[in-house]
Write a structure and sequence with these properties.
Pfam families: Troponin
GO biological process, one term: skeletal muscle contraction
Structural class: mainly alpha
Keywords: Actin-binding, Muscle protein
InterPro entries: Troponin, Troponin_I, Troponin_sf
Number of helices: 6
Largest sheet: none
Protein name: Troponin I4b, tandem duplicate 1
Helix content: 55-70%
C-alpha cells in the first residue's frame, strides 16, 4: 500500500482544525488566568502567615515605639541574612568560574580530526611548479629598501637645572620656540 502525499486526506477539515485550535487557545488562556490567581492567593497567604497584620488601634505611644523597634530589629535580621546569602552566592559563582577555567586549562585546545585528502602525483608536481605560488613565496624581493635615519638624541643633563631654566613664562617661551 503506497499512498502519495497528494492523495492522502487530512483527518480533520480546515474548519474543524481551526475550531479545535481556538478552543485550545481559550482553554489555555483560562488556565493561565486561574494559575495566576492561584499564585496571587498563595503569595498573600504566605505573607499573612509570616507577617500578621498590625493592630495599631488602642496602642499607646510607648507600645508603638516598642513595636517600631521590634520591626526594625526584624528588618536588620532579614538584611543580614540576605547579605550573607548574596556573599555565599558570589563566592560560589567565583568558585564555579575558577573551576571551569581549570577544567578548560586541563582539557587544552581540542584539535579537529583531519580528513585524508588524496592527491595525485601530478597535483603535487603542479603545486611545486606553479608560478603564482612561487611569486607569493618570493615577496620580500620586491620590497623597497628604506634607509633608517639616525634618531636625534638629546643629551642627558641634570634635570634640576632644566627645571629652573624652564620655570615661568620664559621657559614656556623657550619650549614654544624649540617646537617651531
Amino acid at each position: 500500500v503506497y499512498i502519495s502525499l497528494s492523495q492522502k486526506k487530512p483527518k480533520y477539515s480546515a474548519t474543524r482544525r481551526l475550531h479545535l485550535k481556538s478552543k485550545l487557545l481559550k482553554k489555555a488562556a483560562s488556565m493561565l488566568v486561574a494559575e495566576s490567581e492561584e499564585k496571587k492567593h498563595e503569595k498573600e497567604r504566605a505573607v499573612n502567615e509570616c507577617f500578621p497584620p498590625l493592630k495599631l488601634s488602642g496602642l499607646s505611644v510607648q507600645e508603638l515605639q516598642d513595636l517600631c523597634r521590634e520591626l526594625h530589629h526584624k528588618i536588620d535580621v532579614v538584611d543580614e541574612t540576605r547579605y550573607d546569602m548574596e556573599l555565599k552566592v558570589a563566592r560560589n559563582e567565583k568558585e564555579i568560574q575558577t573551576l571551569t577555567q581549570k577544567i578548560s586549562d586541563l582539557k587544552g585546545v581540542k584539535r579537529p580530526n583531519l580528513k585524508r585528502v588524496k592527491k595525485t602525483t601530478e597535483d603535487m608536481l603542479g603545486a611545486c611548479t606553479d608560478t603564482s605560488k612561487l611569486m607569493k613565496a618570493d615577496f620580500k624581493a620586491n620590497l623597497k629598501t628604506v634607509k633608517k635615519e639616525e634618531e636625534k638624541r638629546e643629551e642627558v643633563t641634570d634635570w634640576r637645572k632644566n627645571v629652573e631654566a624652564m620655570s615661568g613664562m620664559e621657559g614656556r617661551k623657550k619650549l614654544f620656540d624649540a617646537g617651531q
